[in-house]
């Protein structure tokens, strides 16, 4: 069974993103046999609409000829995508198949991945105990990064694309050369496994969050801790750094910051906490900006702008908040009850993935939601992008590359 989700094509006037409220729509597609699939649309508070997709054959160019039963419309079909709408509910989604699938990078679940700034390299971690660098075009292995004890939880490229930052269950944060796989820096200080990392500007400073409840700022040049930015008393599952809008008061530091702090001024640090709290602090000042209580543990977070942000919870909610008025969410997006595992600002919208295999993209200039398919019900742990290419990693051990030009 494959389950996909979609949203109405109404646009929110303030932020330009698809509006999600009482008209949330969930689509389901289930293969019945080789040439037929069940289709359903689930508007909240209303009866579910059921239908069928029937393949009549394939035309001379290799594109399937598909029709929908009453209540649904097949708007467009390519070799890699199908656009379906439900006019009665004003709902529309475009389902996109992977352009390429890489199956030989890891042997088990892939828990994190990132793509370099130039789009040439990928880095990923797996429950097979490895962290690898590979060619983003074909998945060909380039380097194996060895040095962490136990599993590596997170990895990302520095802006240069030549250096990798990682964090592991061994409570260590490491910096690696992507060119020769040497570990050039190891940060030691956390008392629990590293759950996420962030890079400040070009990367003279980096930040890590841990199961020990702290977020620490590190000096890469001297391999030293510059301070504890936040001590939450609860595991910090995800973090994000963003430049603050001029209207936001970040407070003033109690102590004069070290001269080794580079690029922290005017920045916010967002912390997704296990204790159902989303916390924001001034990165330079260490002063609180807001504390928001959600419906469940927060797993991930991302800034959309200098005042707008997203945060995803274990019970499937994606909160959009305005830092200038964080008490009431701008909106809450709920596609299913599956954990929200990854959030990423993308162009004028965002990409998200969940624990039921759902992975989708919302953009301001599109009147439909892009659904990234083929993960079935396996969790999609991470999404990374480079230009029009979207990469995902999944529990099934596959890296999938989607090409938005295939739409």
Concise synopsis of the structure shown:
This protein is mostly beta strands and 407 residues long. Helix content is 0%, strand content 52%. The radius of gyration is 22 Å and the shape is globular.
What multimeric state do the chains show?
A: single chain
Structural class: mainly beta
> How many beta-strand segments?
37
Q: Which band does the percent of strand residues land in?
A: over 45%
Mean pLDDT: 91
The total of helices stands at: 0
Shape: globular
Radius of gyration: 22 Å
The N- and C-terminal alpha carbons lie at a distance of 23 Å
**Uncertain residue ranges:** 1-26
Description:
The chain contains no helices and 37 strands. With 407 residues, the chain is an all-beta fold. Strands 2, 7, 8, 9, 31, 32, 33 and 34 form an eight-stranded mixed beta sheet that branches. A hairpin with a 5-residue loop joins β15 and β16. It is globular and about 70 Å long. The model is unreliable at 1-26 (pLDDT under 50).
Task: Identify the notable features of this structure and list them briefly.
407 residues; mainly beta; 8-stranded mixed sheet; 5-stranded antiparallel sheet; 0% helix; disordered N terminus
Task: Write the SSE topology.
Layout: E1 2-3, E2 7-8, E3 27-33, E4 36-41, E5 49-58, E6 64-68, E7 73-77, E8 81-86, E9 91-96, E10 100-102, E11 110-115, E12 121-126, E13 131-135, E14 141-144, E15 152-157, E16 163-168, E17 172-177, E18 183-188, E19 194-200, E20 205-210, E21 214-219, E22 224-231, E23 236-243, E24 267-273, E25 277-282, E26 288-293, E27 298-303, E28 308-313, E29 317-322, E30 331-334, E31 340-346, E32 349-354, E33 359-362, E34 369-372, E35 380-386, E36 389-394, E37 399-403
């Amino acid at each position: 069974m494959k389950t996909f989700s979609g949203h109405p094509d109404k646009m929110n006037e303030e932020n330009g993103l698809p509006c999600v409220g009482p008209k949330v729509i969930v689509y389901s597609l289930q293969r019945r046999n080789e040439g037929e699939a069940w289709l359903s649309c689930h508007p909240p508070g209303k009866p579910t609409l059921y239908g069928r997709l029937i393949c009549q054959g394939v035309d001379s160019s290799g594109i399937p000829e598909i029709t929908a039963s009453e209540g649904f419309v097949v708007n467009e079909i390519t070799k890699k995508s199908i656009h379906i709408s439900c006019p009665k509910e004003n709902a529309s989604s475009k389902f996109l198949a992977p352009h390429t699938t890489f199956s030989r990078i890891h042997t088990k679940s892939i828990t994190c991945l990132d793509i370099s700034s130039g789009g040439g390299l990928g880095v990923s971690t797996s429950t097979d105990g490895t962290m690898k660098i590979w060619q983003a075009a074909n998945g060909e292995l380039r380097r194996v990064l060895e040095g962490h004890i136990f599993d590596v939880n997170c990895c990302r490229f520095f802006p240069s694309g030549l250096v990798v930052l990682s964090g592991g269950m061994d409570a260590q944060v490491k910096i690696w050369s992507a060119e020769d796989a040497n570990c050039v820096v190891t940060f030691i200080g956390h008392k629990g496994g590293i759950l996420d990392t962030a890079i400040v500007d070009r990367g003279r400073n980096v930040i890590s969050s841990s199961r020990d409840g702290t977020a620490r700022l590190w000096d890469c040049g001297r391999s030293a801790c510059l301070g504890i930015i936040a001590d939450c008393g609860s595991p910090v599952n995800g973090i994000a750094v963003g430049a603050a809008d001029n209207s936001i008061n970040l407070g003033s530091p109690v102590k004069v910051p070290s001269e080794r702090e580079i690029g922290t001024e005017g920045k916010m640090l967002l912390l997704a906490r296990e204790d159902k709290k989303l916390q924001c602090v001034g990165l330079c000042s260490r002063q609180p900006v807001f504390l928001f209580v959600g419906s469940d543990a927060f797993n991930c977070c991302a800034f959309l702008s200098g005042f707008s942000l997203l945060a995803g919870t274990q019970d499937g909610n994606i909160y959009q908040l305005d830092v200038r008025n964080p008490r009431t969410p701008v909106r809450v997006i709920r596609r299913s009850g599956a954990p929200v595992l990854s959030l990423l600002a993308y162009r004028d919208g965002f990409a998200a993935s969940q624990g039921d295999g759902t992975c989708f993209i919302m953009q301001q200039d599109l009147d439909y939601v892009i659904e990234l398919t083929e993960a079935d019900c396996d969790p999609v742990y991470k999404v990374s992008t480079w230009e029009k290419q979207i990469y995902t990693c999944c529990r099934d051990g596959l890296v999938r590359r989607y090409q938005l030009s295939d739409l």
